[in-house]
């Protein structure tokens, strides 16, 4: 895994992204030369004339592929699946480019050239993806890992390495027990510690040891052997860091407070605050301008359906525990909480109106919160704000829950794009683990990634409730 602005990115994704940048850039020049066939006086003139259109084409196509989830590799892709995913992404990119040509005519480089460029780049990306995916299956980017521990935590880490990582770039050598107790991993995968941990790791060509021991008290952890492994060039990682790196979660059930205190992250500097506020204002004003027609139509539909209020305000908990009134399009009946007690929203909630169901699926009901962002009560990206009634309950039941209130809440966030909609304490725990990851590793780079993933959620209708 590579680390960019505290966020971990898969090696396969990084290689794929860089290769596709080169393919998209080069396809513009190849298409131009094939179409014009020497019509320009020289390559230097060609590079100068088509530099801006080439960059615009590349950025647009990368954005379109990202928005449709082509850089979230959660299952094996063959030639057919890759082609089926690539076609709508290029269609979206073509639509954005067409609009861009009207707004900025300097970007236009002719229909004939554009057709050739799309054909060349599409073919190149399709072949590159098939080649890279096949290479990853042959283990060219594979890492050999060893788990220290055989309990529940070791089992969960092993399952994550086997099933939740794109293209299985981990080979599990086995599990080494550290103390007597229940063994939760397959007995065939347990390696008897008849020799030192260093000798064992070198023998099996292990590149990383994952310390997945729940209880480290009583001298169970072989610290000297782990240090010896590290001095021999073998990476040593604890379970909390492994989950953070591979699942973008900070697990609260196996988390030591000292890990949060002495670990990296939690950037609350003036520069980070300034960049985030600038990002919030630019994105909010841009999306507000683009979405004005959709908001006007939504407001009219809500009013015509039951002649009730268009908007509703609700108290939410924000930064440092301060409350504020969040603004949303009304998607439920006026008597949604006639019992007088706050209720969790549910999937396919019967209290939702017909229009409400549509705007929830498309996330249009969240758009008025842009006003909260402009007022400084929210950020565009951050943990979703919760109601005081539920915050009081969750603080008592979930450790570290209040950490999410150390930054401003957001319209969208890591939990919203990574976890399906849920409404229970168990779901709140899962969402908190993503929120803690964001609070610890938040950066402008991560905000942009979440914003792109949010567009994917909107376009594909994921997570509707």
TrEMBL record:
Positions of the Bacterial sugar transferase domain: 276-459
Domain of life: Bacteria
Segments traversing the membrane: 12-30, 50-71, 83-103, 109-132, 281-305
Membrane topology label: Multi-pass membrane protein
Compartment(s) where it occurs, according to its Swiss-Prot or TrEMBL record: Membrane
UniProt-listed InterPro entries: Bact_transf, EPS_sugar_tfrase, Sugar_tfrase_EpsB_2
Cellular component GO terms, alphabetical: membrane
Keywords for the protein's UniProt record, in alphabetical order: Membrane, Transferase, Transmembrane, Transmembrane helix
GO molecular-function terms, A-Z: phosphotransferase activity, for other substituted phosphate groups
PANTHER family: COLANIC BIOSYNTHESIS UDP-GLUCOSE LIPID CARRIER TRANSFERASE (PTHR30576), UNDECAPRENYL-PHOSPHATE N-ACETYLGALACTOSAMINYL 1-PHOSPHATE TRANSFERASE-RELATED (PTHR30576:SF0)
Protein family (similarity comment): Belongs to the bacterial sugar transferase family.
Protein name stated in the entry: Sugar transferase (PEP-CTERM system associated)/exopolysaccharide biosynthesis polyprenyl glycosylphosphotransferase
Organism whose genome encodes this protein: Paucimonas lemoignei (Pseudomonas lemoignei)
């Amino acid at each position: 895994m590579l680390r960019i602005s505290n966020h971990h990115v898969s090696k396969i994704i990084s290689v794929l992204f860089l290769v596709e940048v080169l393919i998209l850039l080069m396809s513009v020049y190849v298409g131009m030369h094939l179409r014009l066939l020497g019509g320009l006086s020289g390559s230097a003139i060609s590079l100068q004339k088509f530099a801006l259109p080439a960059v615009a084409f590349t950025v647009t196509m990368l954005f379109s592929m990202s928005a449709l989830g082509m850089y979230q590799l959660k299952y094996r892709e063959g030639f057919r699946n890759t082609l089926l995913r690539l076609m709508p992404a290029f269609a979206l990119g073509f639509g954005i480019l067409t609009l861009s040509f009207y707004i900025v005519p300097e970007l236009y480089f002719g229909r004939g050239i554009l057709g050739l460029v799309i054909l060349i780049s599409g073919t190149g990306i399709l072949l590159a993806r098939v080649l890279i995916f096949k290479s990853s299956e042959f283990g060219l980017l594979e890492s050999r890992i060893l788990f220290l521990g055989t309990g529940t935590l070791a089992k969960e880490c092993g399952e994550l390495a086997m099933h939740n990582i794109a293209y299985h770039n981990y080979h599990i050598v086995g599990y080494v027990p550290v103390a007597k107790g229940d063994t939760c991993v397959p007995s065939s995968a347990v390696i008897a510690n008849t020799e030192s941990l260093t000798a064992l790791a070198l023998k099996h060509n292990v590149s990383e040891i994952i310390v997945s021991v729940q209880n480290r008290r009583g001298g169970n952890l072989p610290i000297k052997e782990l240090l010896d492994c590290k001095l021999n060039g073998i990476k040593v990682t604890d379970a909390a860091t492994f989950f953070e790196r591979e699942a973008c979660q900070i697990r609260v059930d196996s988390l030591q407070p000292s890990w949060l205190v002495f670990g990296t992250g939690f950037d609350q500097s003036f520069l980070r605050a300034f960049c985030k506020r600038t990002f919030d204002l630019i994105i909010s004003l841009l999306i507000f301008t683009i979405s004005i027609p959709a908001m006007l139509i939504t407001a009219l539909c809500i009013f015509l359906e039951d002649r009730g209020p268009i908007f509703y305000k609700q108290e939410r908990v924000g930064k440092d525990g301060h409350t504020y009134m969040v603004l949303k399009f009304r998607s439920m009946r006026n008597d949604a909480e006639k019992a007088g007690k706050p209720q969790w929203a549910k999937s396919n909630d019967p209290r939702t109106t017909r229009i409400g169901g549509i705007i929830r699926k498309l996330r249009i009901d969240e758009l008025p919160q842009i006003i909260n962002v402009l007022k400084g009560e929210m950020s565009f990206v951050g943990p979703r704000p919760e109601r005081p009634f539920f915050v009081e309950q969750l603080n008592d039941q979930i450790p570290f829950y209040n950490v999410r209130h150390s930054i401003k809440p957001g319209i969208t966030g890591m939990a919203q794009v990574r976890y399906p909609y849920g409404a229970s304490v168990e779901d709140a725990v899962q969402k908190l683990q993503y929120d803690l990851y964001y609070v610890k590793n938040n950066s402008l780079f991560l905000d942009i990634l979440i914003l792109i993933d949010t567009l994917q959620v909107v376009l594909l209708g994921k997570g509707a409730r």
